[in-house]
Amino acid sequence: MVTVSLCMIVKNEENVLARCLDSVSDLVDEIIIVDTGSTDNTKAIASRYTEKVMDFPWRNDFSAARNFSFQHATMDYIFWMDADDVLLEKDRHQFRHLKHTLDPSVDSVTMIYNLSTDENGNVTASLRRNRLVKRANVFQWYGAVHEYLEVWGTIINSDIAITHQPLHPHRHSKRNLHIYEERLAQNETFSPRDLFYFANELFDHQQYERAIEYYEKFLKTNKGWIEDNIYACGKLADCFYEIGNKEKAFHYALQSFSYDTPRAEFCCRLGYYFLQCQQYQSAVFWYKLATQLEKPKENWGLINHICWTWLPHLQLCVCYYHLGEYELAYKHNEIARQYAPENGSILHNKSLLESILSFH
């Protein structure tokens, strides 16, 4: 059985750190906590789980802190998490099984990162990241913000999921934005990846005009990862919707198809465009296509799961309602209800359509 070091970087995480460590401490052989300047009880909480709690002076560089934490690992593999992440029970079982069965020739194991869930615990957004890596390879983190771990060799994709559970899921810290703004003020040349993630920060802080500027700069480099290109098209569509330019939003939804086969997320965007234009047959075409696509199983990019499950059916219900095809509307609403049985809009549609159909 392989041994595992858990490496974490933290700052002022007293409200979530114990929850994270409780979910994983019995699965790993060593815990290394690197504190970057906490002023609360984070270090005291960490000390309950490990003696290896160390300080690292913060210098606006996440990669530097993560590489420092990796340098202190001593086990066969390194596993990393953030303080507001947890391993749920089913994933704990899978992680334990992985430790007992992992071939030591494997260089990296990827895991699913569940970014958000709905009120019933269903995953609404996820992606995949390298999570467990062979220590002997001395893999390095790169990027001051939104850092990434560069790996190579034999990589396997596991079904284990890390679940992100922030205390304030809709609150966006200005920390990352400030780091980018400082770098920009110092006339630093941004890489394509920097342009992409700076645009994301601008979008999250509702600076839509500037976000458009940097997403477009990113796409014009023609050097972005395909999944980032597709994501940027989606965010550009969102930005243009926010500033009232539906035509440009439509344009970028279509542009996503130039990078890969259609994704349900963009079929739903196009369906929404036509729905807003009251072109219901065209909207039906795109929403129906969304229901016919197969969800990628090992896609590394962000997946908005509602677009692959209930949302297009809910919108087909709306379209067919406007077209006077109430039985079809009801059929698709019932399909949507199988995925989201407590959704208020779906339940409202059910009641409305049952009253109409019983009347007819």
TrEMBL record:
| Protein species of origin | Anoxybacteroides amylolyticum
* Entries under CDD domains matching the protein: Beta4Glucosyltransferase
The upper taxonomy is: Bacteria, Bacillati, Bacillota, Bacilli, Bacillales
The residue ranges of the Glycosyltransferase 2-like domain are 5-124
SMART domains from the UniProt entry: TPR (SM00028)
Supply the name of the protein.
Answer: Tetratricopeptide repeat family protein
Task: Report which superkingdom the organism of origin falls in.
Answer: Bacteria
Where does the signal peptide begin and end?
none
